Amino acid sequence: MKKETIALHAGYEKDEQKTMAVPIYMTTAYAFDSAEHAANLFALKELGNIYTRIGNPTTDVFEKRFAALEGGVAALATSSGMAAINYSILNLCETGDNIIAANQLYGGTVTLFTHTLKRLGIEARMFDVHKPELIEKLIDEKTKAIFFESITNPSIDVPDFEKIVAIAKKHNILTIVDNTVATPILCNPIEYGVDVVVHSTSKYTTGQGLALGGIIVEAESAKEKIKNNSRYNHFNEPDASYHGLVYSDTPFPPFILRARLSLLRDMGSAPSPFNSWLFIQGLEHLNLRIKQHSQSALEIAKWLKNHPKVKRVNYPLLEGDKNYENAKKYLKGGASGLLSFEVESFEEAKKIADSVKIFSRVVNIGDSKSIITHPASTTHQQLSAEELELAGVSEGLIRLSIGLEVVEDLIADLEQAME
Ligand SMILES: *Cc1c(COP(=O)(O)O)cnc(C)c1O
């Protein structure tokens, strides 16, 4: 089945009410038939609902559908994208361990890795996505994951997946990719050998800026890497907190099983069933939306490139962009609605952001309404000129998230703002 069809049907069996739309199971807990039934559920002898922090029937449809869309074997939805990213690392690391992560990452992920996880004794060793050959010398026996984004936010780079995955395979280390910006429609990292995919579903999945959510997807390859691998002893030895369960010995995908039974149980960033339902609605037309976002963004990128006030345009599928070859290879049918461009000065960029009428000044992406951000005066305000340069954010940089408005209207809006 093609992805466009999967997005409409996977994971939902109509119950006796035969509802076409997936029902919202707004409940905290579920009744057991008997004490024995309860005992079997807790012991995983039988699968079923126990408590919504661990699982919910509406969320289950969303998880199954998303796993199918990414080509994975299981998924776990969380209350936000940051929760999904945090769990994907905590599922592998303890104090003294390290991960290798791209320099070019979402701001919240950077602070999670370099401040919050650091306080827990987990070290992030950073690499430039344009120099994957430098990863190898960062690896040691305590390295538990290599983490990068498929289209980076906000720098809009496309890494060379195959080069990174080859290094990870050689050392038997799991790769984790944040596929938020590309969406499962434009890119399936699992096809290139990635083991775990994470998303903020707050962006293109809902598509209308309606709700916060995240999801972790496990590829079949994760179990092969985890099983009997001394890097991942906690998957191969009895878990005292779950009656001595050995995650890699069960018939279930071990990464998601442990994230659910251990992390969700103990840390609790569970999604609302209502939000899961919103994401199911979003997936039904994600395919149509992301292609339109991408087509409009490419048109605007081309228009900006010819504008006399524009010094540089960053869009991976724009010919001449430094990511063009990787984008052609790894992205299918578009590069999303995210683009950025540079004008001469801080003042000029600020004036443009202040003068647009259709674009909203918002720090978000992936909404059906177009968004403009001037990082130097907002998200990156606290950084020094030097730090801005390291982050690839110049004072005159403007980021756009192109929505679903008619592209001529968006160009006219930019044109009047840039006069
Ligand atoms: C927004 C975003 C996140 C964080 O997701 P939330 O749902 O806001 O917690 C993570 N990664 C990327 C690439 C994002 O754009």
Automatic annotation (TrEMBL):
Pfam families according to UniProt: Cys_Met_Meta_PP
Domain of life assignment: Bacteria
GO biological process: cysteine biosynthetic process from serine; L-homocysteine biosynthetic process; transsulfuration
Protein keywords: Pyridoxal phosphate, Transferase
Cell membrane in keyword set: no
Cofactor: pyridoxal 5'-phosphate
InterPro entries the UniProt entry points to: Cys/Met-Metab_PyrdxlP-dep_enz, OAc-hSer/O-AcSer_sulfhydrylase, PyrdxlP-dep_Trfase, PyrdxlP-dep_Trfase_major, PyrdxlP-dep_Trfase_small
Post-translational modification N6-(pyridoxal phosphate)lysine, affected residues: 203
Gene Ontology MF annotations: cysteine synthase activity; O-acetylhomoserine aminocarboxypropyltransferase activity; pyridoxal phosphate binding
Listed GO CC annotations: cytoplasm
CDD domains, sorted: CGS_like
UniProt-listed NCBIfam families: OAH_OAS_sulfhy
Subunit structure: Homotetramer.
Family, as annotated: Belongs to the trans-sulfuration enzymes family. MetZ subfamily.
Protein name in UniProt: O-succinylhomoserine sulfhydrylase
Species this chain originates from: Nitratiruptor tergarcus DSM 16512
